[in-house]
Amino acid sequence: MRSIDLILLNFNETRRRSIKVWTSIPQEKLHWKPDDEAMTCLEMIRHVLESEHYYHLAIQNRGSLEVFDSPFEKQPFSTVHAELNFAEPYRNHFLETVKSFSEEDLTNINIDRSDVGYVRSLGDMLLRIAYHESVHIGQLLDYLRTAQVPRIRVWD
Fold first, then answer.
1. Rounded to two decimals, what is the model's pTM?
2. What is the chain's percent helix, strand, coil content, to nearest 5?
3. Is residue 156 over pLDDT 90?
4. Please, are residues 91 and 14 in contact by the beta-carbon 8 Å criterion?
5. Which phi and psi (to 5°) does residue 110 adopt?
6. Residue 25: CA atoms inside 13 Å, Cβ hemisphere, count?
7. Rounded to whole angstroms, how far apart are CA atoms 118 and 110?
């Protein structure tokens, strides 16, 4: 199996498990947050989906964007399914871009985000994107525990 295939598998498995958690959140808890400074459950879901779009553009740009006009900002918050449906074309375009990279690209292309403290190889950056989503799934699982909502089993 090629490295790029493993990276795609990681993206797909991470998202599959995210969707399990996201769709298990009761509608009445989507706007819950543990404190005034935290994101709500739905805001965190949006953050993950929007961040993936930003990272996709940063990869295409080979670095941070000077201006990010997010299409997500104009969308009203409603349901998890609405968020997923809106994000689907952006996700598909991102995965197609990932599929287009060669093995050599993973080490030879650098993504310069020195404005936020790092420059990473493309392969490293792609793994970090999936890791970002995983971290937020862990946070949501903690949210659900704190809100006394039963948590779905993600380790299947």
1. 0.96
2. 65, 5, 30
3. no
4. no
5. -110, 145
6. 29
7. 10
